[in-house]
Amino acid sequence: MADAGPPRRGQLERWVSFGTTIIAPATILGAVLFYFGYVSARAQYAYFGIDVDTIGLSTRDYVMRSPQPLLVPLLVLTLLGVGVLALHTAMRSRIANATTSEAPTSLTRIRNLVRWATAGGLTVLGVGIALLFAFPYLRDWTAYSLVTPLVIGLGAALFAYGLHLLGVVDEQITGQRAQAREPPSSVVLRRLTQVLMAVVVVASIFWATATVAQWSGRGLAQYDARHLDRLPSIILDTKERLYLTNGCQRPDDPNGGCIAETVLPMSDGQTYRYRYRHFRLLIEGHDRMFLVPDIWSATNSTLVVPLDGSVRIQFQFENQAP
Q1: Which residues are within 8 A (CB) of 94 and not within 5 positions of it... i.e. 6 or more apart?
Q2: What angle do CA 210, 211, 215 make, to 5 degrees?
Q3: DSSP string computed for 264-282
Q4: C-beta atoms surrounding 161 within 10 Å
Q5: What's the pLDDT tens digit per position in 85-134?
Q6: Where are the alpha helices (DSSP H) in 101-183?
Q7: Which residue of 57, 104, 233, 305 is 20 to 30 Å from 142, comparing CA positions?
Q8: How many distinct helices (H) and strands (E) make up the chain?
């Protein structure tokens, strides 16, 4: 009976280890989804002049918004991964065939080709680093935030993969492991360079994906601005006059959204004096609503309505037969 303790402790440790292997990736995935959902939402509502932090969206809201901006990057990364695996398989097969070939120059030609590819990757990486230092002069370039990480990531990936293939080819040429031929310090330096290049590739992918998420949010905002009639129609009753420039946001702008103002008749118990129509509900936060005119233009503004009893909100029916 005294020997029952250690097996139970070992089983508990295995369960804890199994749980950490699941919880840790799930936590990282949740953080990534939250970040890209936040970046997309921030760009989306900044178009309407709203700081997304004032809306009061929850973590779940941001996570639910993340699939839209991540769809295209995930598809592209998946296709690139398939292509890289196919290329890697073809290269290893070619190296293996050249090793068994009777022509001694086959591996030498492959090694020269790999060296040129590695040098090309280093050159592309240098161009990306130059773009980083040129930010003060290129900050107004719309595609800068996407082109720069893509160039850096491509260069780092080519350089790291070229170093890996050089080690494989050298191993086949010398007929012994590269570690036995190279000094230990050289081996460590090459491995460290590959690890650093992998970090650069991951950071570049993260940067490029964040840019795509930002563009996705801005695209969603522009789409909503062109189709405001799809948003819920709001009738707003207030106790005080809002002074919306005689009922229009911009009377001299034919595209400006006109807000109709009606003075409500006085009666006992009636505390609301003014009624406003032609509002659309852009989004509802924790304790407030964000309303926009029926027709959006660059000169419009977003009305923030607190849900504290100071206003009365009515949702208007669609004028369509059921």
Answers
A1: 110
A2: 115
A3: PPP-TT----EEEEEEEEE
A4: 21
A5: 888 888 888 877 776 665 556 777 878 888 898 899 899 999 999 999 99
A6: 105-133, 135-138, 144-174, 178-181
A7: 57
A8: 8, 6
- Cα 306 to Cα 237, 273, 277, 284: the distances in Å are 12, 17, 17, 10
Structure tokens at 126: 């240098």
pTM for the model stands at 0.77
pLDDT at position 309: 81
Q: Which two tokens stand for residue 45?
A: 């509502």
Amino acid residing at 91? M
pLDDT at 96: 77
Interacting residues of 124 by C-beta distance below 8 A, sequence separation 6+: 151, 154, 155, 158
Q: Which long-range contacts (CB under 8 A, 24 or more apart) does 30-36 make?
A: 30/63, 33/62, 33/63, 33/66, 33/70, 34/59, 34/62, 34/63, 34/66, 35/210, 36/66, 36/69, 36/70, 36/209, 36/210, 36/213
Rounded CA separation 40/33 (Å): 11
How many angstroms separate the CA atoms of 183 and 24, rounded? 38
Phi-psi region of 247 (alpha: psi -120 to 50; beta: other; left: phi over 0): left
| Residue 11 confidence (pLDDT) | 55
The predicted pLDDT at position 267 comes to 80
Tokens of 147: 């082109």
Domain ranges across the chain: 61-226, 229-315
Q: Are 124 and 155 in contact (CB under 8 A)?
A: yes
- CB half-sphere exposure, 24, CA atoms < 13 A: 6
Q: Which of 30-34, 248-252, 286-290, 317-321 is predicted least confidently?
A: 248-252
Residue type, 269: G
> Half-sphere exposure of 290 toward its Cβ, with a 13 Å CA cutoff?
19
pLDDT digits (tens, 9 = 90+) for 201-238: 999 999 999 999 999 999 999 999 988 888 999 999 99
User: What is the reported pLDDT for 184?
Assistant: 61
Q: How far is CA 128 from CA 154, 179, 190, 208, in A?
A: 9, 32, 21, 13
Q: How far is CA 196 from CA 127, 131, 190, 192, in A?
A: 18, 19, 10, 6
